[in-house]
Amino acid sequence: MAFLRSFFATKQIIRRSFTAESSSTPKGFFAVYVGENLKKKRFLVPVCYLNKPSFQALLRKAEEEFGFDHPTGGLSLPCDEAFFFIVTSQIC
C-alpha cells in the first residue's frame, strides 16, 4: 500500500514538472534535480526509469528526505551527480 501511495505522489510531482516545464521537456521524459542545494543541476530522465528498481530506490530516498513537496517544480533526488550517473548508467 505504501508503494502505491508513493507511486501516485511521484506521478503528481512529475505531472507538475511537465506542466511547469512543458516547453523545455520532451515527451517521454521528466526533470529531476540532483546535487547540493545551491548547485542543483537539472537532468531529463526517461519515464521508463520509473519501472527500474535502482531508480525506485532513489525515489524512496527522495520521499524520506523531502516528502512530496518539491519547491523546484521538478523532482529533487537526494544524491550527488556522481551517484546519479552510476545509478542511471546501470539502467538498460
From TrEMBL:
Pfam families assigned: Auxin_inducible
Keywords from the named record: Developmental protein, Growth regulation
InterPro entries referenced in this protein's UniProt entry, alphabetically: SAUR_fam
GO aspect biological process, one term: response to auxin
PANTHER family: SAUR-LIKE AUXIN-RESPONSIVE PROTEIN FAMILY-RELATED
Family stated for the protein in its record: Belongs to the ARG7 family.
Protein name: Small auxin-up RNA
Lineage: Eukaryota, Viridiplantae, Streptophyta, Embryophyta, Tracheophyta
